[in-house]
Amino acid sequence: MSTVNVNGVRAAAKKGLVEWLSATDADVVCLQEVRATPEEWPAEVLASAGWFQATASSSAKGRAGVAVLTRLEPSRVQVGFSSAEFDESGRYIEVDLPGVTVASLYLPSGEVGTARQEEKERFCKEFHAYLLALRDRALAEGREVVVCGDWNIAHKEIDLKNWRTNQKQAGFTPEERAWLSTVFDEAGYVDVFRELHPEGPGPYTWWTYRGRAFDNDAGWRIDYHIATAGLAAKAVHAEVERAAEHAARWSDHAPVSVHYDV
């Protein structure tokens, strides 16, 4: 299973996304920030592997958008999480596959001191309540859950190269990091990659296009597989598929892939 913020599916398709999808052995791929309606996707993105496509587009044209691509047809698709404010923002979709619910999340990035940060705080509050309900529903149905995607928060100091200078920046404020801790400590979900690779620093999953951030590996780990404990225990291998060089990148994020022995 893989997750990646594609930074625009049409742009990524021209840079290497199609080739990556053709080569991956993942059974499920979660995409974020696709910025296109299903009708606007390049046909070649799905054609190579015959993916089933479940998408949630934003009501704001050209913004956000998430998707889940699967080899098997999902038995259920849900857009949003019953939020009056956010269900049409293209930030959450979940699908049911045999024994597991898979979600693709694009959490707001925020901007400290602005309305965008207040929006992020409202999203996090609502989404935490939903995560609890999702966990309980899955438990009652004998299912597992994994929420993949761009969570737009670096959890700990080892998840951010220049953490000392970013403590007042969106994505690494004490409040955001504390909120993400509640997802693990209170809601009982597991950071699957960090469970398999507890040592840092990194590896990172996002690097700004500005300057030489990628070449210097000055990145952030903000893309996660966050799963219920039963599924997390079945994870046997995880990697960040970092491009070999700057010119080979097809997004400012790198895919995060986990093999689950299920």
Description:
It is built from seven helices and twelve strands. The chain is an alpha+beta fold and 262 residues long. The protein has a single domain (2-260), classed as Endonuclease/exonuclease/phosphatase (Deoxyribonuclease I, Chain A). Strands 3-4-2-1-12-11 form a six-stranded mixed β-sheet. Strands 5-6-7-8-10-9 form a six-stranded mixed β-sheet. A hairpin with a 2-residue loop joins strand 6 and strand 7 (100-106). Helix 4 runs parallel beside helix 5 (174-185). The chain starts with a strand and ends with a strand. The model has no long low-confidence stretch (mean pLDDT 97).
Write the layout of secondary structure elements.
Elements (H helix, E strand, L loop, with lengths): L1 E4 L3 H7 L1 H7 L4 E5 L10 H5 L4 E5 L9 E5 L5 E4 L12 E6 L2 E7 L8 H27 L2 E7 L23 H12 L4 E2 H5 L26 E5 L1 H4 L2 E6 L15 E5 L2
Parallel strand pairs: 1-2, 7-8
Antiparallel strand pairs: 1-12, 2-4, 3-4, 5-6, 6-7, 8-10, 9-10, 11-12
Protein name: Exodeoxyribonuclease
InterPro entries: AP_endonuc_1 (IPR004808), Endo/exonu/phosph_ase_sf (IPR036691), Endo/exonuclease/phosphatase (IPR005135), ExoIII-like (IPR037493)
GO biological process, one term: DNA repair
Compact overview of the structure:
Belongs to the DNA repair enzymes AP/ExoA family. This protein is of the alpha+beta class and 262 residues long.
CATH superfamily: Endonuclease/exonuclease/phosphatase
Mean pLDDT across all residues, rounded? Answer: 97
CATH architectural grouping: 4-Layer Sandwich
Overall body shape: globular
Quaternary structure state of the chains depicted: single chain
* Radius of gyration (Å): 17 Å
Structurally, the number of domains stands at 1
**Distance between termini?**
11 Å
**Coarse structural class:** alpha+beta
Main beta sheet strand tally, sense and closure: 6 strands, mixed
- List SSEs in N-to-C order: EHHEHEEEEEHEHEHEHEE
Low-confidence stretches: none
Task: Please give the order of strands in the largest beta sheet.
Answer: 3-4-2-1-12-11
Number of strands: 12
Using the coordinates shown, work out and report the CATH topology. Answer: Deoxyribonuclease I, Chain A
Strand portion, in percent? 15-25%
Binding site for Mg(2+): 5, 33, 150, 152, 252-253
GO biological process, one term: DNA repair
Domain Endonuclease/exonuclease/phosphatase: 3-253
Keywords: Hydrolase, Magnesium, Manganese, Metal-binding
